[in-house]
Every structure is written in structure tokens, then in C-alpha cells.
Amino acid sequence: MSTASRLLMSALSLLALMLVWQVAAWWAASPLLPGPAAVLAAMMRAAEGGALQRNIAITLARVAASFIIAMLLGSAIGIALGRSPRLNELLGPWVIVLLNLPALVIIILCYVWFGLTEAAAITAVSINKIPNVAVTMREGAAALSRDLDEMARVYRLGRWKLLRHVTLPQLVPFFTASARSGLALTWKIVLVVELLGRSNGVGFELQTAFQMFDVALVLAYALAFTAVVQLIEIGLLQPWERRVNRWRR
Amino acid sequence: MSAIGIHIMGKQFPARAGAPAREIFRDFRLDVAAGEFLVLLGASGLGKTTLLNIIAGLDAEYRGAIRFAGAPPRIAYAFQSPRLLPWRTVLENVALVLPSGTEGQEAARAMLADVGLAELADAYPERLSLGQQRRVALARAFVMRPDLLLMDEPFVSLDTASARRLRDLLRRLIIQHPATVLFVTHDSREAAALASRIVRLEGTPVHIARDVRVELGVTERGSPARLQAFLSDAGLAEPEALSGGA
Fold first, then answer.
1. Is B83 within 8 Å of A151 when comparing Cβ atoms?
2. I need a labelling partner for A200 at 20 to 30 A (CA). Which of A160, A163, A181, B105 fits?
């Protein structure tokens, strides 16, 4: 299927979803299930004063900060564990414990210990994500090719060349996988963190709308934010993936 | 140019997955003269690759010593599989072993032209045939001007015509860039076609069963019948070859 026809199919499918939603809204005829038009109107209202844009920007900044921290620290930990079996025996169980700790517990503990601050919020989201990244990267680091490593040793490639041309390219698929699942996980947790202890951002606005039972505003924020995340995926993540994978047949 | 003194007092494969420990080398000695094209001939699984890995410095778990005359040689290694970086272009793979910079790029490009792959410089290795990938591996080995070239069955699993073309290429490259070569194979005809000296290895632990100089001209090396005659005379012919495939 060509790109154009695939896009057309996606558009038709989304249109059908809108139709189902509209019919359900008519049938329910309640402010608790507003139709697409009502949600669009709520979205316009929120965008008029700039509140929608500002809150999405704030949330995105938090997502970006915690995502970058988690990817860096998680990759470093994962690679170290994957390269050293002894370190893995020592610290592997910690990763498992952290992996299974509910996100909510980490958020509450961070707020209790560090106060209702920006740093606590970012830390909480990063800690939630780090073990996922570490586990994926550990798998990649443990599966590094011995053959290529020997080649690099015989030809006396320096440390930098080894890292840049031999090691990192082997880790790219694992890095992409954890970045992909990472973005989805991070923005969901950021909303919870905002709901529990911040006074701005999409999560905070959702809570306010929830208290007013303003379902149209909840849906307006949810849809606007989802659209932005989709744009990042299509505009940033996918082109990058294509670039690093261009050598594959 | 390097002369090599190999003395392995002991090398074992540890017991693994039910197989008992195996002693591959015990008091094994081999001296290689500078500029020699030495073929190590022997059955698969004998320990030939292990020997190359010890000389290359990849395997340090042995007792004994590898001595090089003079300064440590620049070593290139053509492995049994090409071992190219699939995510780098052909040109980048060859330039990898040179210092970064335009000079290295130029040298790599010239070497690729030398092995007949100039127009594939910007392709990725997985798009190449196995024969072409082996050419890239050869270019990578020669571009660094090695003193010592280790080759581990570098032409295995190619069809006869491709393998012959690659042998011709290798002979030409050696003339252009003289080096001491240690070439491992289980194919006695390949050995006779290339070597200036053939060492036949046998047994566990490995010992030298035969050590033969090869003084054949270019035309003789190109003739299968002449090679077969040489192998019979030298006592290197394989039993199946002697019986004429009957």
C-alpha cells in the first residue's frame, strides 16, 4: 500500500470513530458525554486565553526533561550491567525491585521527601522510567557481537572509534525501543505527577475540570495533548529511526 | 617485515557441555621467516584458528610466547566471515582501520579501486554478495599496510570461480604490498596455489606432520593438474583426491 492510500485509510478510520462518538453523544444526550462539536468548542475556549497552549508547553517541558534524564541514566546503568556479569549479579535485583514499584508510590515518596517542587516531580518521573530503559539496554549490551569486538581489537581501533562505529550502532535498536515505550510511559506519568503536586500543566487542568465535572474540557485537553504526542512521534521519532536504519536491506 | 617465533607450551580447551577438556597444543614450535606465505593446512576443528587468535593477541589463555623480530608488527586479520560493520558503508568499513581524515578516505578509495569495488564504495555491506564482502575485508586488511597478515579460510563457502578470482587478487595484492602471511585452510589445492611454504598440522595435541617449501611458477599454480602432481609428490594429497573421486 502506498503512503497516500495508507493515510487515507487512517483518516477514514478516524472519521468513523468520530461518527460513532457523535451518535453515542446524541443517544446519551447528557453533558457527561459531550459530542465532538462541544469538545471542539471547549478546546477553542481553552485556547483563546492561551491556557491550553501554555499548559501543554509546560507538560511537554516536564516530559522532555524527565525523558532525557531517564534515557541517559537508564542507558548508562543498563550498559554497565550488560557488560559486567558481576555488577549485574550485584545490582540486577535492585532494578527488578524498582521496576515493580508502582509509579504512584514513587511519586508520593518523592513529594514527601523532596517537597512539592519541580525537581521532585521530574525526579519521580525519571525514576519510574529508568529501570525500563536499563533492562532494555542491558539486553542490548549483553548481546554485543564478539566477532566485531575481536575485529576492533586486531585493528587497534581507539576507544572513541570503537564506541562510535562498533558499540553504539549495535545498541540503536534497543535505544529506539526504549525511547518509544519511554515516551508513552513518561507523558502518562507526568500527568499523574501534575495532578498530585503541581499547580499547572495538563494534569493539573484535568484535575480542575474533573472537580467541575467538565467532561468537555477533560476531552479537549486529552485530545489536544494526544495530537501533540502523535506529532512528535511522526515528526521526530520515526524519521530518526528511518535514518539510523537505512543500512538494513 | 617480521619474523615470528611461535612457542606454545600449553593450550587447553576447558571442559564444556559434557565434552571433556582437550589439550590442543603441547610444546608446539613454529618459526616463520619474514616475507613467507605460510599455509597452515589441516582438518577443521584442529586448532588452526586458535593458533591465529593467539598470534593476533585475541587469545591470551595459553602458556608460551609469541616472539616478533624487531618492533611489534602491524597485524591485519581476514576472518572466516568478513566481519564488516553492516551499518557503515563499504568505504567507511575500509577507512575505519586508518586514522580519520581525508587522507585515510583517499587511501581507502584507492584500495577499493584496487580490489575492483570502486563503484560500490557507498553501498552497505548487506547489499553485497559474499564474494564482494570478502573483497572488502581484503581491502580493509591491505589498506593498513600490514607487516603480518593472518587469514583464516578467507575464501571458504564461495563457488570455485569466485574463490579462484579472489586467490588471484590476493596474489596480486601481496606482490604490491609485501607482507608475511599466515594462511589457514583445509583445502590442499588452495594451499599449493598460494603458499611459499606449507605446514600440515595433525592430531591432538597438534603436531607438525609435514613442512614443505613450494617453488611453483605462476603458470604451474594456475594448472589444477600440475598442483595435484605437486601435492602427490609432497605427500600432501588428500586420500579422496588420490582415488580420483571413485
1. yes
2. A181
Residue by residue, DSSP assigns A2-71 as -HHHHHHHHHHHHHHHHHHHHHHHHHH-STTS--HHHHHHHHHHHHHTTHHHHHHHHHHHHHHHHHHHHH
Chain A residues whose beta carbon lies within 8 Å of the beta carbon of residue B144: 155
Q: B78 in helix, strand or coil?
A: strand
Determine contact: B57 vs chain A, CB below 8 A: yes
CB contact under 8 A, B85 and A148: yes
**Is A247 in contact with B88 (Cβ distance < 8 A)?**
yes
B4-74+147-237: in CATH 3.40.50.300: yes
Interface test with A, best of B59, B97, B142 (most A CBs within 10 A): B97
Chain B positions touching A169 (Cβ under 8 A) are: 85, 87-88
**Record: contact A147-B127, CB cut-off 8 A:** no
Q: Quick check: pTM over 0.90?
A: no
- Select A37-244's CATH number: 3.30.70.100, 3.20.20.80, 1.10.3720.10, 1.20.1250.20: 1.10.3720.10
**C-alpha–C-alpha distance, residues A155 and B94, integer Å:** 11
ipTM strictly over 0.95? no
C-beta of residue B221 within 8 angstroms of C-beta of residue B205: no
- The pLDDT profile of chain B, 246 residues, written as one tens digit per residue, is 448 999 999 998 887 777 788 889 999 999 999 999 999 999 888 899 999 999 999 999 999 999 998 888 999 999 999 999 999 999 999 999 999 889 999 999 999 999 999 999 999 999 999 999 999 999 999 999 999 999 999 998 888 888 989 999 999 999 999 999 999 999 988 999 999 999 999 988 999 998 999 888 888 888 888 888 888 888 887 655 444 433
The values of phi and psi at residue B195, to 5°, are: -75, 155
